[in-house]
Amino acid sequence: MNYQPQDFLPIFVQLAAALAFIVATMVATHTLGPKRHSKKKDDAFECGIESIGDARTPISVKYFLVAILFVLFDIEIVFMYPWAVNFKQLSWNGFYDMLVFMGLLLVGFLYVLKKGILKWEK
């Protein structure tokens, strides 16, 4: 199939409209927005709690690893729900595919346990 340059015109028009909207919105908020600055207004505000200390304090890598693992196993449910809904239509091939999927997740989970990522204290 040969595409002609005019076939891409709607895409470029939509791209130009989106970019124009972004630029117009940024210019409008910058020109129309308030310009009053003070020490109190420019302070960091987090849920009404005063900011104390440095924001650059190191956080344990284990916290991020547990968060990533949570997202990983949470996404697993996203894949399992459609499988469960269409279980009868998928027949045995779908069942075997899910066994492979769950097996790979189990291997990954066992690897995580072996590495001690879920142990908070040494």
TrEMBL record:
Give the EC number(s) listed in the UniProt record: 7.1.1.-
GO CC terms on record?
Answer: NADH dehydrogenase complex; plasma membrane
What keywords appear on the UniProt entry?
A: Cell membrane, Membrane, NAD, Quinone, Translocase, Transmembrane, Transmembrane helix, Transport
Q: What is its main location?
A: membrane
As for subcellular location, the record says: Cell membrane; Membrane
**What membrane topology was assigned to this protein in its record?**
Multi-pass membrane protein
Q: Which positions, given as ranges, span the membrane? A: 12-32, 63-83, 95-113
Catalytic activity reads: a quinone + NADH + 5 H(+)(in) = a quinol + NAD(+) + 4 H(+)(out)
User: Do you know which HAMAP family this protein is assigned to?
Assistant: NDH1_NuoA
PANTHER family for this protein = NADH-QUINONE OXIDOREDUCTASE SUBUNIT A, NADH-UBIQUINONE OXIDOREDUCTASE CHAIN 3
Per its database record, what is this protein's job?
Answer: NDH-1 shuttles electrons from NADH, via FMN and iron-sulfur (Fe-S) centers, to quinones in the respiratory chain. The immediate electron acceptor for the enzyme in this species is believed to be a menaquinone. Couples the redox reaction to proton translocation (for every two electrons transferred, four hydrogen ions are translocated across the cytoplasmic membrane), and thus conserves the redox energy in a proton gradient.
Q: Which family does it belong to?
A: Belongs to the complex I subunit 3 family.
**Protein name according to UniProt:** NADH-quinone oxidoreductase subunit A
